[in-house]
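About this split. The held-out portion is used to measure sequence recovery: a designer receives only the structure tokens and must propose an amino acid at every position. Recovery is the fraction of positions where the proposal matches the reference. Here is one held-out target exactly as it appears in the evaluation file.
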């Protein structure tokens, strides 16, 4: 018994961090270099030998981590091995997607799925916008003086209840002033309308956390200007022409507005009715869905801007404007709501 005790006393301290590192650090460095190469250039950049070494070095790193935990080595080394092991796990066993694959998945599945998940809120917001338009339309139709409460006079450019039918028609791209839309000033109102709707759309989403109340108010306000202007043109017998002027880009723009309001309302309802989750967790979950919707809203507003800036000025036929607007609406509905194979499986 006596001779063995000193031997054990001498062997115990010999297992130290420095000795452990000296014996195994070469494997960790090699594994780290392979992971860095894999992250930057992908698996195609690795040779056959490197691909064979990867799982071996991963297991060696896990073994080192297990020993480090069992022997209570210093925290810095333990943290380094844990980080290296986690990184290795995701790169060796995790699903790796290229940027192109992630973009494809977003446009084919993630964005449409997010929009479908807020379909109830979308219907509510669409009805609120419609209510705002009907309210201002009925007020201006019964008393034209209401118009000046809804549309800033400096931006109307003479398109108000006092204008003649001929002048109003010329501002829509018809009649003698058709070639001079810049001169007629209708582009000023169009720019105002697009900028206004885009701003309101973003605010509707951003203020959704306040129980959804500001979102509903802003979306109601969204329809006010449209309804007032429609009442003016309809009063002169130009309601159909004005509808075509608006429809070519409005189906995309107002759809985007409804989706932005739906995204904000989703967050608001999650705060008010969190269910079994806490309010912060419910809001965070809703925010992830709403964020995907809003990325799509920005893209839709960009498309609406192109339709407004080019399509409406180049296409002056009312029937064709309605046709393009209807086609865009059908395309958006099909894109969002048609089932996809991945969704079924």
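Reference sequence for scoring:
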């Amino acid at each position: 018994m006596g001779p063995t005790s000193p031997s054990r006393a001498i062997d115990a301290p010999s297992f130290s961090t420095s000795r452990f590192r000296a014996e195994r650090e070469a494997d960790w460095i090699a594994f780290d270099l392979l992971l860095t190469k894999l992250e930057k250039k992908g698996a195609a950049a690795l040779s056959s030998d490197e691909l064979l070494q990867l799982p071996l070095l991963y297991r060696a790193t896990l073994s080192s981590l297990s020993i480090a935990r069992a022997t209570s080595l210093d925290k810095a080394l333990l943290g380094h091995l844990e980080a290296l092991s986690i990184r290795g796990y995701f790169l060796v066993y995790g699903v790796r997607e290229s940027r192109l694959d992630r973009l494809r998945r977003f446009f084919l599945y993630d964005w449409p799925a997010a929009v479908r998940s807020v379909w109830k809120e979308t219907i509510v917001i669409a009805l609120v916008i419609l209510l705002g338009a009907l309210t201002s339309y009925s007020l201006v139709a019964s008393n034209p003086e209401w118009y000046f409460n809804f549309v800033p006079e400096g931006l109307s450019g003479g398109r108000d209840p006092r204008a003649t039918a001929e002048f109003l028609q010329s501002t829509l791209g018809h009649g003698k002033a058709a070639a001079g839309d810049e001169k007629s000033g209708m582009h000023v109102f169009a720019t105002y309308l697009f900028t206004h709707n885009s701003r309101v759309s973003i605010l509707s989403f951003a203020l959704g956390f306040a129980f959804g109340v500001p979102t509903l108010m802003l979306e109601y306000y969204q329809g006010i200007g449209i309804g007032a202007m429609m009442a003016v043109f309809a009063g002169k017998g130009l309601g159909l022409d004005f509808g075509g002027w608006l429809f070519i880009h409005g189906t995309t723009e107002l759809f985007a507005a409804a989706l932005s309001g739906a995204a904000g309302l989703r967050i608001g309802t999650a705060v008010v009715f969190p269910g079994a989750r806490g309010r912060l967790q419910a809001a965070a979950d809703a925010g992830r869905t709403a964020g995907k919707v809003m990325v799509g809203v920005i893209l839709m507003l960009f498309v609406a801007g192109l339709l407004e800036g080019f399509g409406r000025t180049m296409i002056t036929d009312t029937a064709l404007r309605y046709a393009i607007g209807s086609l865009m609406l059908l395309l958006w509905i099909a894109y969002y709501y048609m089932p996809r194979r991945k969704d079924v499986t």
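Annotator remark: The radius of gyration is 32 Å.
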